[in-house]
Amino acid sequence: MTDIRLFGYSDPLAAKTGEPVDFMISAEGTTEAQIDIVRLVHGDYNPSGPGFIEELVETDLPKTLSVERQYTQNGAFARVKDAEHKLGHVDSFTVHAFICPSSPGGERQTIMGCWSVNTSQGYALGINPEGKLEFWIGDGDKVDQVTSDAPLVPKVWLLVAASFNHETHEVRLRQISVQNSWNSGIGPVTPLDNNSHVVESMRCSPLCVESDFLLAGAHESNLRRGPFVSMLYNGKMDRPGIVARVLSADEMADIAQGTPPDDPLAYWDTTEGYTDTGIGDRIFDTGPNGLHADGVNRPIRAMTGWNWMGRDDSFRLNPSQYGGIAFHDDALIDCDWSPSISWVPDVALKSGVYALRVSAGDKTDRIPVIVRPQTPQAKIAVQMSTFTYLAYANEHLSFEAQIAQAIVAHTPVISEDDLEYNKLQEFGLSTYDHHSDGAGVCYSSWKRPIINIRPGYRMAGMTFPWALPADLSLLWWLEHAGYDYDLITDHDVHAEGSDALTPYKTVLNVTHPEYYSAHMLDATEQYLMAGGRMMYIGGNGYYWVTSTVPDDPACIEVRKLDVGSRAWQAEPGEGYLASTGERSGLWRSRGRAPQKLVGLGFTAEGMDRSEPFERMPDSFHKRVAWIFDGIGDEELIGEFGLALGGAAGVELDRYDLALGTPPHTLMLAASCGHTDNYPLVSEEISYAFPGRGGTQDPQVRGDMIFFNTANNGAVFAAGSIAWSQALPCHGGENNVATVMRNLLNAFIKDGPLPGSSYTGMEKAWR
Amino acid sequence: MTDNSYYKVGRRPWELKGQPDGLVERKRSRVPYTKRHWLKWRDNHNAKTLQRERVLADKKPLWWTLGLGLLLVVTPFLPNSMISVASVFCIYAAINILWTLIVGTAGIFSLATLAVVGMSGYIAAAANVYLGVPWPFMLIIGPLVGFMAGAILAAPSTRLDGLYYALLTMGVAEICRVFVVQLRALTANNGAITQVDSFIPEDWFLQRPGLLLGFGGAFCLLLGALLVWRLVNSERLGLLLRAAKGSREDESFCEAVGIDFRRARLQVFVISSAALGFVGAFYAMYYRSISPSIFSLDQMLLLFAMMVIGGLGRAEGAVIGAAVVTIIDKGMIELGPVRIIIVAAIMLLVTIFAREGLTGAREQFRDFRKRKAGERRARRTEKGGEAMPEEAVDVLDKQELYYRRFNKRLRERLKKMITPELIAEHKDDPLGHHSDALSRVLNYFRRAEMADKYVIMRLKDGEERYRIMAVSGIRGMPPRVVDDKQYDALNDAYHAVFLLRVNDLLES
User: Fold this and answer.
1) What are the chain A neighbours of B494 within 8 Å (beta carbons)?
2) Beta A352-360 vs A363-372: how paired, if at all?
3) How many CA atoms lie within 13 A of A532 on its CB side?
4) Residue B252 pLDDT > 80, yes or no?
5) Are the beta carbons of A193 and B458 separated by less than 8 Å?
6) What average pLDDT is seen over chain A?
7) CA torsion, ordered A450, A455, A457, A459, to nearest 10 deg
8) For B412, left (φ over 0), alpha (ψ -120 to 50), or beta?
């Protein structure tokens, strides 16, 4: 029997009841698969909890489905639809572009052209396997090429151009250095000569057959797969163009000075179409034919260009110096598979996390989809952190990040699925990974199979479930404890603002709401100001400035910079989101420290063991003592948990007045006794000195706090990822659950909260 | 003690390098009708200065021009006997080159090379002497005969294995010899055909002008053979055969990927045979006669010696081999039979000491030097220890050198911390609060580079069965299985990894 492989994703990742969800499935080794819909009740095999639970859902979907292999186009490039062959069928011409190649050499790369790999037809300017600039042409019978003299230096800007004279068959290939003190990876003190000017006569003329002109790729096709784009380019490109004649040396010099050619056939002004609120995926041709290029797999915009002078650190300040577009051969935004089946969740269906269970042979895959009710049903909303799910989607940390084992403090435990995904390298990267040329990944989307949102999946580095599978522990407990809840998502809050939150008496966050947009912060803030009640029961929340891409909610963007626990560091000047025009990085660097919203903010992380919370004196104040009804004065809260055996662990948040924790906040409890594998986070370190680990630094702890907001609103926060994963222990009846019950029972009631009348000055005798 | 001292490294460049200016336009001309450039100039950035320099990446054309130029210039000033040695060298070099095409490029182990030369020479000479065909036409008859002989000989080459085919072709040569010797018409001359007309006028024959003219002709013949070599070996046919070289054993595989391997081999064989036919006709004209000795085994073995001494499969090997053997065999004729012993001795020495004949000596010398350097470095540095200056020149990121020094010293300190108590502490709780010593040891392990870093594999979701693997550190390359042990508890697996790492540390 051949090995069966099943992969799939849902679009959208989260849907309302009554609205269709498409499931895309790719199968190898079988043409038929059994399908059904299950509700994911609990997603952790850990024997200390209820185990893996799913519930079959009656639907009218067929039991079997015919499936086929679907292919994925990896790599970013841009496509120019040119049905009239205006760019392909030219006699004499010059192609030119500023480029900053990031990994010349190895595999052949295409910068621009209309080259057909299978038939060797057309022309292209690119980089040969030796790492040198090359211009190649072919007519299907003969192929010819000119190679530049000077080797390309990685991460150094230069102008490249090739012109073809169709009468003499003469090609001029030029390389003109435009390196300055700011724009390149190395400075002008290096005596490199990147210039080159070679003239050679070809023995054939180009014959373009494909109508699409490509930036950063070439046409290829395969009997089974059909047409696709290969020979992808790694690096940045700025203002490419074509002129329908051979340009003189003076004209080339003008282009190298930044003057566009007078009579372009096409000139893609990569700085065109910039707005104060972001840049789209279209690269505009300002030439006479308007042959715009459309990005595929999201070439990265808002990058510094060939003429960047370091004074302006955002494309908004000086678009003309921000013409850079970064292409990566392993970028993936959208698998673009055709839907295998569509499901419309019944309007009466309970809100929850569902999955299409696909099985064939001994393989079973569960493709999750979060279902939100058509109209709000419950008093409690759980805000599923879909931004975070995407940010971590298909992370490669255990396989690629040298420092990962030191961060998580133990040896990763991988699974069969990890091996499969890692071997295939087909389903893209997370914002914790690097592209093949070393650049950080700033986009992630749900339009691809994502291994780590599968129920039961344990993140290899930590050996326990992370994000969505971990959040199921909270949902299991809410159901176990008899609370009705509606699921909403980050995407809903981002799109609808506080309207998504106000119908609910209380909103619960999940384990790790790390990625947040400005819309979401505003919505949560407005909800609290209007009397909403938030339970922030996660760790390292409200951390990264993130946004969805305006025309594609499936895709999020984040740029990691300056401080914070960052898997990569944006290059200078490239810290602003192309999607919104705002500065990315940490929210605390932009005046929105999470403490200002929910009282707590990130302080330490470690993955060796979790600890319990210990009550602090404030917890005995009558304003909040009701939260601890049923809990002993010195009882440790959460000496158990599915995430490393405690309720306080993994990632921890701290109370800090200096960072904006509301001054009336009560510190109810704090965790203690963390190991030195919980070091204080980098954004807290101004001077480095020894002893910033859990055994020596008092700032390494997780806090539990409470404060009131106007109109009977309140915030309860327990700053620990492990909190929710402690709930299912001991059959769901434990002291973490007691705290949650006391809170929920109060939070879902109208009117003032218990204890809210104790606002007088304490005239104490003791 | 030299063990503690450092050798100074660094060398002045001996190679002449151009200093190109990238702003200057360079027109690159090509060999007519090809995509090839005359010389393979390549620019790079000098790793020491980052300055651009232009080097001749392929220096062979230079050596060819020098060698052949020298031969052409010097020969007219040599005594008569040496001129004929030069001519014979040219002829043998030409035969050898064509034979190399058959054996090296086409991979057909034919020993009938001289038989083809002889057959063509005989038939061309007979046509001239007995049928009165004028001598220029001999140069057409020769290749035609060669072509036909090649076509006939090619037929069994696809069916027979190397050794059998070699024997067969040897047989063909012997049949030719016996046939010619027993031919009644030629008995008077002991089987030879004499009085063959030639491009050398009869009255110049064996005179200095005649010898010079003969040398000129032979030199052109050598150039012609080189041209055939170039066209066959370095163009489409040769490239096809080279593409399949790694899998010569499996011709069906080559066919599967679209290379008609047999056809290409046969084409090379037939082309080379036709060229050998031309040499045969030239041979008859050069000597104005042709005798059965051309079919003899000792001639064949002489050719064989040339090939072995020069190195198989390369044009320069064929030429150098021919030069060595002709100078000894024909140039030192006064030594008598000793010279055969000398040739044999050289042959023996070359086969013992050189991997690929004299032409491979340079590559071999480099490998030898590299091996010696490796051995010396290994002697001077401990495993994973500090880099010596001679090693440092190969490391681009100089920070690596510091890491090596640092980690070596760190390991020395950590090794002292490994005690049974420390191991027991880890076994007790792999993820707990650890002593300072254990924390330091663990942190060193966890920070190790990605290549061959240990991970644990959960054999089935939801089950407690584990095994230890090591990741590759290369995207897309799966981890390797370290051993076949299985563990039923995660803590046991953690501890097993710890023990493996302790072992690695103590062994370093």
Assistant:
1) 410-411
2) antiparallel
3) 26
4) no
5) no
6) 95
7) 70
8) alpha
Q: Which two tokens stand for residue B302?
A: 């002489």
- Would you say B109 and B158 are in contact if contact means Cβ atoms under 8 Å apart? no
> Which tokens belong to B154?
């090619």
| Least Cα separation, residue B10 to chain A (angstroms) | 21
Residues 6+ apart with CB under 8 A from B281: B120, B121, B124, B125, B138, B139, B141, B142, B143
B51 and A399 within 8 Å at the Cβ level: the answer is no
- Mean pLDDT per 10-residue run, chain A (766 residues)? 86 96 96 96 93 95 95 97 91 97 96 96 96 96 94 96 95 96 95 94 92 95 94 97 95 94 96 93 95 96 96 95 97 96 96 96 94 97 98 92 88 91 91 95 97 93 92 97 97 97 97 97 97 97 96 96 92 96 96 97 95 97 96 96 95 97 97 94 93 94 97 97 97 97 97 94 86
Contact between A467 and A450 under an 8 Å Cβ cutoff? The reply is no
CB contact under 8 A, B434 and A675: yes
The answer to whether A433 and A441 are in contact (CB under 8 A) is yes
A-chain CB neighbours of B474 within 8 Å are none
Measured between CB atoms, does B25 come within 8 Å of chain A?
A: yes
Q: Which two tokens stand for residue A5?
A: 């492989």
- Phi and psi dihedrals of A191, rounded to 5? -80, 45
Domain ranges of chain B: 1-59, 84-288, 418-507
Q: Which of residues A231 and B390 earns the better pLDDT score? A: A231
Is the C-alpha dihedral spanning B269, B274, B280, B283 positive or negative? negative
Residue B162's pLDDT is 75
Q: Which residues of B397-407 are buried (b: 16+ CB within 10 A; e: fewer)?
A: eeeebeebeeb
Contact A329, A77 (CB under 8 A): no
Q: What is the pLDDT of residues B317-343, one digit of tens each?
A: 999 999 999 999 888 888 888 988 999
pLDDT tens digit sequence for B254-278? 777 677 777 888 889 999 999 999 9
User: How close B415 comes to chain A (CA, Å)?
Assistant: 19
A414 chain-B contacts, CB cut-off 8 A: 455-458, 469, 479
Q: Which of B51, B445, B475 sits opposite A400 (nearest CB)?
A: B475
Test the B interface: residue of A399, A416, A430, A436 with most B CBs within 10 Å: A399
Q: Check CB contact under 8 Å for B494 and A414.
A: no
Strand order across the beta sheet in which B480-481 lies? A413-414, B454-458, B466-470, B480-481
Cβ–Cβ of B433/A52 closer than 8 Å? no
Q: Counting one residue from A and one from B, how many pairs have CB atoms under 8 Å apart?
A: 147
Task: Report the 3 state secondary structure along A368-396.
Answer: EEEEECCCCCCCEEEEECHHHHHHCCCCC
Helix (H, G, I), strand (E, B) or coil at A144: strand
Q: What is the DSSP letter of A574?
A: -
Work out whether the CA dihedral B240, B242, B244, B249 comes out positive or negative.
Answer: positive
Residue A458 to residue A455: CA distance in whole angstroms: 9
Which residue in A has a C-alpha nearest to residue B480's C-alpha? Answer: A419
Percentage of residues of chain A with pLDDT beyond 90: 94
Using a CB-CB cut-off of 8 Å, the residues of chain B touching A463 are 490
Nearest-CB residue to A191 (from B50, B447, B455): B50
CB A268 within 8 A of CB A240: yes
* Beta bridge partner(s), residue B132: none
Q: Do A413 and B430 touch (CB under 8 A)?
A: no
- Interval A516-543: pLDDT, tens: 999 999 999 999 999 999 999 999 999 9
Between B431, B458, B462, which is nearest A409 by CB?
B431
Contacts of B25 in chain A (CB under 8 A): 197-199, 249
